[in-house]
Amino acid sequence: MFRKMRRSDKAMSKEMTLDLLSRGQEGILGTIGDNGYPYTVVVNYVYLDDKIYFHCAKTGQKIDNINFNNNVSFSVYDNVKVIGEELTTHYESLAVFGKARVIETSRDILLALVNKYADLDQEKVLSMIDKEINITALVEIEIDHITGKIGKI
Q1: Which CATH number do you get for residue 30?
Q2: Is a pLDDT exceeding 60 seen at residue 65?
């Protein structure tokens, strides 16, 4: 169902790939809209229990596209180093293919998201979450396939 990586000599181990997914700061979500065009957008995310989670508004193009077609891609990259004298760029990247769905908004997952990106007093964080939880959607991506690559372009 999924293509084999063309440059398998550049493949990251599963452990390295999951490490990148865990430590990555931004992910690029790819969806398909009812107009047939791909739509990509950068999201903050957290990787928990072998799934990817991100929050967003309850309405908008991401949600519409996921409701239209729940097949998504998700990319993360890190350690980008431009080597000007060689006219190349070194990087680590991963590609996820999975199924996305809007789930009941969970205080615990929102807490994990906030704690990944901000070092705040937990009482303050919980107060912020309680204030926003009813207007926040939470999306879960169940991973069907993942590959990681150490490469250069």
Answers
A1: 2.30.110.10
A2: yes
